[in-house]
Write a structure and sequence with these properties.
homodimer; 336 residues; alpha/beta; 15 helices; globular
Chain lengths: 336, 336
């Protein structure tokens, strides 16, 4: 890979311009509006509530960034933004970016402070409550967050559902299940699997709606509990998707040991995250996600496949493997 | 060009992570420190004042983003970051990014408000004073800004100095000269040219230091004045680099007319900016720069080559051409 020249330095250094432009477009529902039909500048400006000074530059910037098309003066979505950024489609992944726009963009403004102090920079800054406590206390915010997590994870969840050798197993527990998409995708692709989504009680309504909407109420159930205060629900396979990176080293090891305890001999633990390459020099997204854990949590961090394999070996797993999934995400599988 | 898939959507949407990471690295002088010699994690962490929780992820993220290298546990600059982001080198371009980190990152957090209201979102928000008035009132801030502008422009300035047919002309005025790099580069490359840097009186000390340091005091002089309140100093060639985009349509036309008045028949006006392609669908940086003018000014905007040619024709220029320079920047030349 080539190193950055002066253009690349400027492009990344001012990269927040393009980033915030896309985030504002999602916030203003540009793509949801254009999913109905292409529109000209005047109509779109009126419907979105854009000021005449800024409307054309904003929309044309989205064209030049390849998030919109413009043909004969009429703007339309690209096929990707139509699929992924139209709020009314189930394939919408904008939830995580709405959250980034509403919260993370400004919290990351304090990155230098976080780098100097090692302290989180989100709502919990200076106070006693942590991010998850604040999040779970507010039903609407929580629901938004849980859906956002689904948007971020569903591609990977489908891969795990199809690629993992599910024929060797009958039951699975999804730890920190959120809306339940991982266990839902596994159950949809593998009719012989029944499963449990394990998360705090506040998650139940969102989880149960989603499971019912996928016609899986007979095979997929919710179990309320804290994965630190209680044993994990026993199953052939324990799964943790985008969970382990939220916690500090000791907490990570506790979770891996609890998973070991909850599965039978021959059972499996599947951990996935934006797992960093062992040399820590390639997966920029995974390393930046770890800085996001610095901003969001008291001790969380992302980790390499070798790190996770080490914790699994220490807990007693006899066999492990690291498999790349999609984009920045990989999974680590441990067999007891 | 391919349209974004889900990865591209996430990469741009969360692009402020990489952007802010680079900006914090510049703020913390990572590259200036490593320009001295490569250093291991512990040494670098101590010297930069990084917290142990974040140091390794931060530095390895910079490695994965190709702004640093790591060999046998020792971090070093790439040749580009060594040249362009070491504060002690004259080739340092980080000033503009220091300014982006200190000001623009948070102002851009209000992009949606700017898009809805058409109103600027910087220090001048809600108040009477504009950005330039605030800037010029504070000598140290002003000096930093003027140097930052040089970093951003010097590559383009050198191109104009070598590529424009200077042999046909003897004098030049650089309007809104700032530190004076454009007229300095032109005078350095063309010993027969003498020139004037025209800007507000507060700029004089910074300009005169820079001209003297380049050994040009005998051929390049400063003229104090406002380009709206006064006539432009007469010359064979009038130049405006990264100036026209700061102003609204009527002000832009005034400046083009004033340039026409200040040159003889056969004289030239050179305007450069991140000029947008005529179809407004390719130069994303130019369109985003125009949104930056929305954030920073009351009426400024970037424009296409055709727009600028139109204003020049209207002012009476008989011949015009648009030439790409470097990266996002092009120049428009008008001949009287």
């Amino acid at each position: 890979m080539n190193e950055p020249n002066i253009d690349a330095i400027m492009q990344v250094g001012l990269g927040f311009w393009a980033s915030k432009t896309l985030l504002s477009a999602i916030e203003m529902e540009v793509f949801t509006e254009l999913a109905k039909h292409p529109e000209d500048l005047d109509t779109l400006q009126g419907r979105l509530g854009l000021h005449p000074r800024s409307a054309r530059d904003f929309l044309d910037a989205l064209v030049a960034l390849r998030f919109l098309q413009r043909v004969d003066g009429r703007y339309s979505n690209t096929s990707s933004t139509d699929a992924f950024l139209d709020k009314r489609k189930p394939s919408y992944v904008g939830g995580i970016l709405e959250m980034a726009n509403r919260r993370l963009y400004s919290f990351w403004g304090n990155l230098t402070i976080a780098l100097r102090t090692g302290e989180l920079q989100n709502e919990a800054k200076g106070g006693g409550s942590n991010f998850f406590a604040a999040l779970y206390a507010e039903p609407e915010t929580l629901k938004g967050f849980l859906k956002a997590m689904t948007g971020l994870s569903t591609g990977v969840n489908r891969l795990i559902a199809s690629r993992f050798p599910w024929k060797n197993y009958r039951t699975a527990t999804d730890v920190g299940t959120a809306q339940g998409d991982l266990i839902v995708q596994v159950a949809l692709a593998n009719p012989h699997i029944s499963g449990i989504g394990f998360d705090l009680a506040e998650v139940a309504p969102t989880f149960e709606d989603y499971v019912a909407a996928n016609g899986l109420a007979s095979r997929v159930a919710f179990r309320a509990g804290s994965f630190f205060d209680e044993d994990l629900p026993k199953a052939d396979v324990i799964m943790m998707g985008h969970i382990l990176h939220d916690w500090n080293l000791e907490e990570k090891k506790v979770l891996v040991r609890k998973a070991f305890k909850a599965i039978p001999d021959g059972g499996a633990l599947i951990v996935y995250d934006s797992i960093i390459d062992d040399d820590r020099s390639q997966n920029a997204f995974g390393l930046l996600m770890s800085l996001n854990m610095l901003i969001e949590t008291t001790g969380g961090f992302d980790y390499t496949g070798a790190d996770c394999v080490g914790w699994m070996k220490e807990a007693g797993f006899r066999e492990t493997r690291v498999e790349h999934l999609l984009g920045p995400d990989s999974m680590v599988v441990g067999i007891k």
